[in-house]
Amino acid sequence: MTKKQHYRPATQLIHGEVERTLFAETSEALFLTSGFVYENAEQAERTFKGEETHYQYSRFNNPTTKALENRLAALEQAEACVTTSTGMSAIFASLLPLLKSGDRVVASLALFGSSYWIVQNLLPQMGIEGIFIDGTDLQQWQEALSKPTKAVLIETPSNPMLDILDIQAIADLTHKAGGTLIVDNVFATPLYQKPLQFGADLVTYSCTKHIDGQGRVLGGAILGSKKLLDDHIVPFTRNTGLSLSPFNAWVFLKGLETLPVRIEKMTNNALHCAKFLEKSSYIKRVLYPGLKSHPQYTLGQKQMSAPSTMIAFEVKGGKKAAFTFMNALKLILISNNLGDSRCMMTHPATTTHMKVSQEDRLRLGITDGSIRFSVGLEDPQDLIEDLQCGLDAIAALT
Ligand SMILES: *Cc1c(COP(=O)(O)O)cnc(C)c1O
């Protein structure tokens, strides 16, 4: 519904792009159907020829997943969106259709574990060169992108150490090298950072995280120009079957209605917790885009409208202190998920980034004392008291 398009994001996420059925339901209908019927054989023929718009099969499209795609596109101010079964299928489907053997891909080393695996292991198997650099170092980008490069993959802020990368500068260098820039925007969420406005070509999400926000279902999304999606990405997701389930799309539509209030509260909680942790003598460093101590604080201020919900910190005393801290928590869960309404902590070196070599882990700043903290919706005072339990347990060690 185009007449709703001028509304601001919080309004659009509730009222935007609603297509009601003839029953005039308030909340979006859930179309749990794999197929669709035609009035006659001629209509089926016209549909397959592309002469008539008609749903064909839910691997291609479905009214519920379409509603989610329309709403995500409006939020991102993108021409087009395609949803996928998971965040990882979104990353995979934004890379693979652009590449052929002999091509070259450059990525920042600070990537989600499975994204790292794709560039490190899968692409070379297909004869595609995958190069990792320190994404915060523009000189390394200049060098790496002085050769023709088909695709560049970055995450900012990155998982798990919250590096902030200069999207605009990397986009310019990528385009000079003839490539497509893909930005995994999970940590910032679509509300707090708009990579397309800084020159990125594709933005990906794991909807599993903040968009669901209550840790229920898996899903992903890719956004960008209609041409790039129609020519490359959509034929790939449709024909390889990376499609999102309509049920999961419906859960995400419900999640989007409350996304602005949830992440605002989670961000406030995160700032509160980050400031508390930074004061402790048992903590070596806290990385949070909302703290002036963050190495790329100024860039974050320029590129993000809020510091979002993720914190990384390092306890003094290595793995023993990190495990003691986590095991002493009564409220904050030990879990490798993120973006949930519940607070969660994980120890990247032994979980999400276990498969990254020790050498690359250290290059990323992931030490045995590093902990990733996804901040939830709980009362901030309860969180501070829980963090204090962790700190007390480290104190008792010494
Ligand atoms: C979770 C996550 C992914 C992968 O998403 P799934 O839905 O688990 O497949 C990719 N990138 C980032 C930054 C993530 O946090």
Automatic annotation (TrEMBL):
The record's catalysed reaction(s) read: O-succinyl-L-homoserine + hydrogen sulfide = L-homocysteine + succinate
Identify the keywords attached in UniProt to this record, alphabetized.
Amino-acid biosynthesis, Methionine biosynthesis, Pyridoxal phosphate, Transferase
Q: Does this UniProt record's set of keywords contain Isomerase?
A: no
Record's Pfam families?
Answer: Cys_Met_Meta_PP (PF01053)
| Top-rank EC class of the record's enzyme | transferase
Keyword Amino-acid biosynthesis recorded: yes
The protein's matches in CDD domains, at most eight in alphabetical order, are given as: CGS_like
Give EC number(s), comma-separated.
Answer: 2.5.1.-
Q: InterPro entries given for it?
A: Cys/Met-Metab_PyrdxlP-dep_enz (IPR000277), O-succ-hSer_sulfhydrylase (IPR006234), PyrdxlP-dep_Trfase (IPR015424), PyrdxlP-dep_Trfase_major (IPR015421), PyrdxlP-dep_Trfase_small (IPR015422)
The cofactors it requires, by name, are:
pyridoxal 5'-phosphate
Q: Give the record's subunit note.
A: Homotetramer.
Similarity comment: Belongs to the trans-sulfuration enzymes family. MetZ subfamily.
Which purpose does this protein serve, as stated in its record?
Answer: Catalyzes the formation of L-homocysteine from O-succinyl-L-homoserine (OSHS) and hydrogen sulfide.
By what name is this protein known? O-succinylhomoserine sulfhydrylase
